[in-house]
Amino acid sequence: MSLLSVRGLSKSYDGVRAVDDVSMAVEPGEVRALIGPNGAGKTTLVGMICGRIAPSAGQVVFDGQDITALPAHRRTRLGMAYTFQITSIYARLPVAENVALAARPHMAASKVAQAACSVLEQVGLERYRDVLAGDLSYGHQRLVEIAMGLVASPRLLILDEPTQGLSEPEIAAFKDLVRGQAGRRAILLIEHNMDVVMALADRVTVLSAGALLFEGTPDEVRADRGVQAAYLGGV
Ligand code: ATP
Q1: What are phi and psi of 85, to 5 degrees?
Q2: What pTM was estimated for this model as a whole?
Q3: Which domain range does residue 122 map to?
Q4: What percent of the chain lies above the pLDDT cut of 70?
């Protein structure tokens, strides 16, 4: 059974179809990239999956359960976590405290500190644990957000443009981090950096003008003429 199924999902704003009848499925443990030109509907689709945006039509099924009407916080309890383009950390709190805050709803109080510590190790931020999050570099702040998503041990982690604004070494560290998660949880990744997509994704879903244009392996996506015309510009 798929971990996540999206069926006929649509979202209209004033008659404009931001997402238009999209169906897709994500399997347990897979890394799925979601790509498409600016305005293709990626953020809107993911917003409907995680419960931030109410669909105009369609269904979201997670682990066999219809969650279309569930609020976002209930979906996180079922094993979904997400980070967004805009950083959502608490700048005036230490790094470890940010991660602990994200952990608290998901575990007994006595387990929080250890879980925060272990996830900071996984993302390579253990030496910054007592630093105020606002004093970190932008790249490290993005990693704190990912740590905040991972600490709940989600079965599906959704990342919206996680490498945007990162330096090359930071992107390399991010790739290692995702590879280290492989098989443990599914990751749905909105990503503009095609090098990252090609390196990490098991499968790629391509959106264009709100609709699903193509789905396949990175090589199939690279070879598809429709995708090239809509997006890749002949990569
Ligand atoms: P980007 O890569 O630039 O983040 P995207 O693929 O994530 O783009 P969306 O942000 O989902 O695309 O936007 C899809 C379309 O829906 C765009 O035309 C956008 O202008 C429109 N849209 C998104 N949110 C709203 C809103 N709240 N009200 C009106 N239109 C919206």
Answers
A1: -55, -40
A2: 0.92
A3: 4-232
A4: 97
